[in-house]
Design goal:
Elements lengths: L3 E4 H9 L3 E3 L4 E2 L5 E3 L9 H8 L4 E4 L6 E3 L5 E4 L5 E4 L1 H7 L11 H39 L5 H17 L14 H43 L2 H7 L9 H13 L9 H4 L7 H21 L5 H9 L23 H16 L10 H12 L4 H14 L7 E3 L5 E6 L4 E4 L15 E2 L20 H7 L2 H4 L9
Helix pairs in contact: 1-2, 4-5, 4-6, 5-6, 5-8, 6-7, 6-8, 6-12, 6-14, 8-11, 10-11, 12-13, 12-14
């Protein structure tokens, strides 16, 4: 039975303030695509924003299927007999035998279903990204042939499609193929990856920072107006750091950020040995000189695109090394450019090339975070959004547990992992139950061992059981 129907705006506001919900009802879009599974606990606003963007205005809750809505204090929010909203505290929940969020767990059947879902996401992701890479391949070819001209409208359409999919699929970049065969392949793929990663971070930053500022402004208005007006204004979300058109424009810049490399001699781009000082000076010109020239040749005078193309290698803190150009102070680099630079560095670290192996994602995130943490207050918001978007342990990454086992990360939250070796690194012959690391309390054996480095990708692939190989992130393909 449907206990109640809540507006998507109210649900977002409750989850923003620490609340949780479980629908007990599968939620689909108009095309019949499953957007939210009935057994999933929602404690982040992103899934609800996806529903909102799909045109869904309200969500039903089925208490008979363990559905429910809880506020940040753990109180059950429900509709009373008089039609008003009631909040039932946790002790009463037990008497009524209704499940609180902590009592809901995943069954083996849920995991099997999730593995199948990942396979489907992976297929669709590869199709979308291959189309985007093919578009960029044509663009770079056009630029090389015409010394600067390319079909801008086709790029805008392709980026719009890629971004819409990435947002709707809640940032599926862990399923992108990372097997590189030449520098050209790397360039097409890297730019597509950076666009997807940076867009996810941008949306996360925009939501979190806008909410933080809006909450501060609401509290100020509440103090001035006596309370009522301030609380009403909070619902409107009056402050937005970036608006929708801004976000779309910035994502286009993320896709084209390295476009100046089409003007760099291919012998330098494909060189696998160390660049000489003179050669590196030529490579550096791809941003502030060649990239800027390509935009000018196509009549693109957009300041957002120009900033991203010219300054994605600029310093993010004082005296940061190997940065260029240096005609702007680090504090004057726009936040969207900083996001692009972080995404560029991260994807380069986790991508396999002809001259280096890929880093495991947790190691790459840790390296990035250590370099830029505590450098600048606004950069901290960006870093927080980056870690939340990518996840310290992204789906598809491999970790060591302190009990000596290796595990595959199924979901970032927790994280939820599937151990696939014993403590001697022999592949398990039986399929184990997944482990929610976050629910294991203080048991040190079930903590992630951050001091151990993961083996190279080929060795990892050889250890994976067949049911994980089917959905494993392509970085672990031989």
């Amino acid at each position: 039975m449907i206990e109640a129907i809540f507006s998507i705006e109210n649900l977002i506001e409750i989850v923003k303030t620490g609340g949780k919900l479980k629908t007990g009802v599968d939620v689909y879009n108009k095309k019949g695509r499953l957007l939210l599974e009935k057994n999933i606990i929602v404690d982040q606003v992103r899934p609800l924003e996806i529903l909102q963007q799909a045109g869904i205005r309200s969500v039903p809750l089925n208490s008979m299927a363990d559905g429910g809505l809880w506020d940040g204090e753990g109180n059950l929010i429900r509709v009373g007999t008089d039609g008003g909203i009631e909040r039932v505290p946790p002790p009463v929940l037990k008497k009524l035998n209704l499940p609180g969020p902590a009592s809901i767990s995943r069954t083996p059947g849920d995991i099997e279903k999730r593995l199948l879902e990942i396979q489907e996401i992976k297929k669709e992701t590869i199709q979308k990204y291959d189309a985007a890479k093919e578009c960029l391949k044509k663009v770079l070819k056009q630029i090389r042939q015409t010394r600067g001209q390319f079909d801008v409208q086709t790029v805008e359409s392709r980026v719009s499609d890629l971004v819409s999919f990435s947002v709707a699929a809640d940032h599926p970049f862990p399923y992108m193929n990372r097997e590189i065969f030449s520098y050209d392949d790397y360039l097409y793929q890297h730019s597509t990856n950076v666009c997807a990663i940076a867009t996810a971070v941008l949306h996360r930053f925009n939501t979190n920072f806008s909410h933080t500022v809006d909450t501060f402004l609401t509290e100020r208005r509440t103090n001035i107006s006596g309370g009522v007006q301030g609380r009403e204004e909070k619902k409107s979300g009056s402050f937005n750091y970036y608006y929708k058109d801004d976000l779309n424009e910035i994502s286009l810049g993320f896709f084209l950020y390295d476009i100046g490399k089409a003007m760099v001699p291919e012998r330098l781009l494909n060189k696998t040995s160390r660049l000489t000082g003179k050669e590196f000076e030529i490579i550096k010109r791809h941003s502030f000189e060649y990239g800027a020239k390509v935009l000018e040749e196509n009549g693109i005078k957009n300041s957002v695109l120009n900033n991203i193309v010219q300054y994605h290698h600029a310093p993010l803190f004082e005296n940061e090394e190997r940065c260029y150009p240096l005609d702007k102070r680090w504090a004057d680099i726009p936040l969207y450019v900083r996001i692009c630079k972080l995404a560029d560095i991260y994807d380069a670290l986790v991508s396999k090339t002809s001259y280096k192996d890929a880093l495991n994602q947790p190691e790459a995130i840790t390296r990035l975070f250590r370099k830029y943490v505590k450098k600048d207050p606004m950069l901290q918001f960006v870093l927080h959004a980056f870690v939340k978007s990518v996840g310290l342990h992204p789906p598809g990454s491999i970790v060591y547990l302190k009990n000596g086992q290796m595990a595959y990360v199924l979901e970032s939250r927790g994280p939820l992992v599937i151990p696939f070796t014993d403590n001697r690194e022999n592949t398990l012959r039986v399929k184990p139950n997944p482990v929610d690391i976050g629910s294991m309390g203080s048991d040190p054996l079930w903590e992630i061992d951050h001091d151990r480095s993961i083996k190279n990708t080929r060795e990892v692939y050889n250890l994976l059981p067949s049911y994980i190989k089917k959905i494993a992130m392509p970085a672990y393909l031989p």
